[in-house]
Amino acid sequence: MISALGYASKNAHSHLHRWEFERDDPKANEVVIDVLFCGVCHSDIHQVKNEWGNSVYPCLPGHEIVGRVSRIGAQVSRYKEGDLVGVGCMIDSCRQCDACRSGEQNYCQGPNSWLATYNGPMKPAKEAGQNMYGRDNTFGGYSNVVVVPEDFVLRIPEGLDPAAAAPILCAGVTTFSPMRHWEVKAGDKVGVVGLGGLGHMALKLAKALGAKVTVFTSTKEKIKEAKTLGADEAYLEDDEKALEPLEASFDFIISTIPQKHDVNPFIALLKHDRTLAIVGALEEMKGVNNMDTAMLRRSVAGSLIGSIDETQEVLDFCAQHQVAPEIEIIDIKDINDAMKKVEKGEVRFRYVIDMATLS
Amino acid sequence: MISALGYASKNAHSHLHRWEFERDDPKANEVVIDVLFCGVCHSDIHQVKNEWGNSVYPCLPGHEIVGRVSRIGAQVSRYKEGDLVGVGCMIDSCRQCDACRSGEQNYCQGPNSWLATYNGPMKPAKEAGQNMYGRDNTFGGYSNVVVVPEDFVLRIPEGLDPAAAAPILCAGVTTFSPMRHWEVKAGDKVGVVGLGGLGHMALKLAKALGAKVTVFTSTKEKIKEAKTLGADEAYLEDDEKALEPLEASFDFIISTIPQKHDVNPFIALLKHDRTLAIVGALEEMKGVNNMDTAMLRRSVAGSLIGSIDETQEVLDFCAQHQVAPEIEIIDIKDINDAMKKVEKGEVRFRYVIDMATLS
């Protein structure tokens, strides 16, 4: 066993507290990683507070992990001690279903779906009737050490700042994957709804792909910030006058708002046959008006993080195009305050915990 | 001018009444058609009652029209007197936008969108600020004669019963077009939600395409009727026990329910990366749970009727595969009763007005 230290919550109403626990020794295919940095994702808050109803406790969040390999299992071939590596939202999948075999582990249809970096299998035993992973809970990156199968470990390319690389592992790939899937290309007009952790990455990645990017935000100050970050245009979400002339002009729109919201005003902005992808909210949305979708055969889709290959691709893409999240490095003792600020939309744009502050 | 006779309503609260009116003489590119049969579509009721808020009065419905050419304009080349022809939901479009030029007139993005067979331009002048068609209202097929540009006239192939051909012009193409667009093929598992005018055509067409078809209905008696019509399986929509094992097994689902409803139970039945198309309801739907869409990158789309080419294709396809709507021929004097029965879901499965009863 490996002695580990982290910050976890005991239940849905508890703050995160320092917690000593143990991790299993690495199996032959696993890598032990000393955590250097971990991003604070809005979904960490949803799960700490059990807002999706699927949380298991203790809940030790964190799935934007950057660290150094400190030990490897006997059969590990891709990583060696000292390598700078990353871990995102998944640490295992069934490896046998169609999705896994085609390299889309994030859509694993095994009995328990994929194994989340924290909070256990996506389909827990009580729902699936079995548990192929042999554990109901997993503990994430708000800790000093993680143990992960090498197939789910990413390489942090040279040229990426290790702290700034962390949010790419969730916020980056979550926005990059749908832009790849719906084939965003140079010259396309892309809309980004919401300018938080995910939204600001969507903006930067779409710009790096050569798209013209329009940001829609609920926060007046973020209009200017969007433009500073590279947006071609930025509007308040409810500015009907500004939105009207944009009708039917977008090739792709990504909604990154992390809770229930109304996508109807943005559906009207899509061209014929185009898609609005919702990546921020995993809950029931406001109803879509099918007059707007049907009139131009538009689609509203969901998209969930990205595959391991896509995660490596977006890391490499960010290094190549000098794309980096806007981060603020925090002490882990300030995590509860930081979470409150994330909820209030006060972070600019991602908190990253410096794990050296955990001791 | 051509003296015409039809059944129209004066306002949203009026029944349909016999109405004498005049149609313009045919322009050089137009065809005069003596109406033989006209189908009764649920959307006729929505528009007579102004349930979509876009009705203009008098409202003379009918967009599933079969008739004989009685006269042609000087430049008409594709049709001659005596031809058996059909007219669907559209009688003109801008002919200049990208959609029109690619043959998808049903997604016309001209200033007024397409010109509906009745109820005028899809985007009326009060919304568009102009009217390229020069008329705010049009009068449909619940009448003895229509005048239509030849490009929007369909050929009724030999081997199709003229009365049964009528519903193919809306119910047929509305369900066929999305099955073509989302590439339904032999062996696919297709779900049909709702077994009315559209639903029973979706079932027959999907079967003719070689798919395995499951029908979901709210009406117990329709379980048996679905199987009689060729469904491989049929379930009550709210039979959770029956639906659970079907999770993530469908290649395509089409929802034909003509009013606001909940598609969440059916989204869960879609495979990874597949689409549920809503064709029956043109209004705000119940909210979609993005947990279900995101988990397998599923899409919810709208689809609106079909193009002129697709309408001809589905007519020819029906003749070739011996697909015919289940119809009940009615006297036009019974139209108000018939509409009530359509609203109550009592029709099996499409009323078709015999226009010889209009005199």
Automatic annotation (TrEMBL), chains A, B:
Residues 11-353 form the Enoyl reductase (ER) domain. PROSITE patterns: ADH_ZINC. Pfam families: ADH_N (PF08240), ADH_zinc_N (PF00107). Keywords: Metal-binding, Oxidoreductase, Zinc. PANTHER family: ALDEHYDE REDUCTASE. Belongs to the zinc-containing alcohol dehydrogenase family. This is NAD(P)-dependent alcohol dehydrogenase.
